[in-house]
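TASK: fixed-backbone design
INPUT:
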């Protein structure tokens, strides 16, 4: 464990703006960083027996070689440089009363995602919102028509971290509870950000979680790669829940991704690993890690019907009106990177 103790300077006392407001001293912290290494700010606390312990403050930062400065409440701090462990670098706990648009973008799309889906992705807060500590993505039987005359019978939402959170490799952990209506298609997945390998799916796609309507006793993961459509290929795999299904309770879904392999987990159990020898990109055959060696971003959405159900006797039109909205709830999203 490598640790740098920080010199701490008290900033001037804050002025009292109103008589009923309290001011607290703030600390101005500054510490050197090492380029390319993760650094974790920690504050000294005590456990139930009075023994000292250090607790992380916010996500880890990647050192640039330049000093990093921050203001923090009064306390004793240190800079910890984690080694050979997963370090939290980005998260959303959905602890406020609204979506953080510094982390997420609502997408708007009415054209079925190339899969003959029947939802319009809309930016109205009716379809994506934070409530009781969870992100909710809700499908309603609300038809929507765009200016070109295209109509979809359902409305939903799709959120992404593109240009707000993009990562090459890491651990991606999402605690979620999924809907169980037939023809409802919740997905937690990743797409490349400005891939040099070409359009879908030459640039790759990583599906962390997909649920096929009312088949909530299982979850699916997949990789899409190869050439640009229609010369793309995919590998998919299915996990069976041993206890409560995807709609009965929250589960922790995770993906660990590096240049050599990609692994899927449910509730801490590794259930599938794909090796780099199993994937390829038509535009970079000489690169054994391509297309999964470039930045990807996260996507959360709930689709309706489409090709995903072409071998299933499921259709959202059969869902009783009383069972709408169909909602995917997300308790948190956490992204970790491996500290060298």
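OUTPUT:
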């Amino acid at each position: 464990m490598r640790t740098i103790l920080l010199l701490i300077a008290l900033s001037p006392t804050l002025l009292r703006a109103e008589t009923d407001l309290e001011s607290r001293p703030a600390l101005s912290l500054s510490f050197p960083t090492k380029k390319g290494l993760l650094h974790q700010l920690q504050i000294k606390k005590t456990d139930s027996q009075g023994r000292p312990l250090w607790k992380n403050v916010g996500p880890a930062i990647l050192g640039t070689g330049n000093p990093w400065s921050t203001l923090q409440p009064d306390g004793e701090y240190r800079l910890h440089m984690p080694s050979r462990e997963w370090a939290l670098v980005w998260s959303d706990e959905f602890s406020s009363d609204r979506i953080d648009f510094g982390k997420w973008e609502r997408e708007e799309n009415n054209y079925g995602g190339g899969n003959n889906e029947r939802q319009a992705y809309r930016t109205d807060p009716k379809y994506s919102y934070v409530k009781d500590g969870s992100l909710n993505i809700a499908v309603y039987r609300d038809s929507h028509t765009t200016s070109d005359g295209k109509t979809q019978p359902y409305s939903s939402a799709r959120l992404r971290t593109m240009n707000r959170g993009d990562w090459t490799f890491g651990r991606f952990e999402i605690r979620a509870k999924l809907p169980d209506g037939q023809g409802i298609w919740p997905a937690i997945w990743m797409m490349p950000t400005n891939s040099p390998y070409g359009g879908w799916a030459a640039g790759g796609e990583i599906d962390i979680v997909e649920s096929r309507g009312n088949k909530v006793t299982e979850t699916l993961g997949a990789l899409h790669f190869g050439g640009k459509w229609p010369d793309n290929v995919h590998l998919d795999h299915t996990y069976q829940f041993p206890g409560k299904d995807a709609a009965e309770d929250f589960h922790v879904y995770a993906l660990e991704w590096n240049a050599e392999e990609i692994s899927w987990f449910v509730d801490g159990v590794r259930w599938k690993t794909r090796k780099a020898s199993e994937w390829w990109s038509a535009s970079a055959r000489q690169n054994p890690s391509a297309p999964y060696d470039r930045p990807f971003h996260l996507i959360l959405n709930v689709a309706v019907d489409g090709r995903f159900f072409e071998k299933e006797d499921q259709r959202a039109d059969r869902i009783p009106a009383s069972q709408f909205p169909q909602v995917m709830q997300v308790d948190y999203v956490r992204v970790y990177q491996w500290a060298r």
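COMMENT: Confidence is low (pLDDT under 50) at residues 6-19.
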